[in-house]
Design a protein that fits this description.
five-stranded mixed beta sheet, single chain, alpha/beta, globular, 19% strand
């Protein structure tokens, strides 16, 4: 699934995007506020949906090779999060939808 369609589906605001972000492909969505669970992921082409609006969410995404993070629930994204996203070349979005609603919306467009 291409990231532009995902962003449109979530009515997401682009906060930071590395060069070529439009070509990022997403095969798996992982939704969690527990970064210890995220660190257990071994999937490729992963998108993280979280309500955890801290630098730890970006660090954890970087460790597992996640190229995109969506911050749910209209949470405020800090400058530190943006700087980490830039350093790790992680696309960072924000959406007003809660985590659950975001997953439902993404599930609808990712079904075969």
């Amino acid at each position: 699934m291409d990231l532009i369609r995902i962003a449109d589906t979530l009515e997401a605001e682009l906060i930071y995007a590395p060069k070529g972000w439009e070509q990022i492909n997403v095969e798996t969505v992982f939704a969690s506020d527990l970064m210890s669970d995220v660190l257990m992921s071994d999937r490729d082409e992963l998108l993280l949906v979280t309500s955890l609006s801290t630098e730890q969410s970006i660090r954890s995404a970087g460790i597992v090779g996640c190229e995109t993070v969506v911050i749910a629930n209209s949470k405020t994204v800090t400058e530190g999060m943006i700087e980490l996203a830039k350093d790790q070349e992680i696309a960072l979005f924000g959406t007003r939808y809660p985590k659950y609603e975001s997953c439902v919306r993404l599930g609808r467009i990712m079904e075969p």
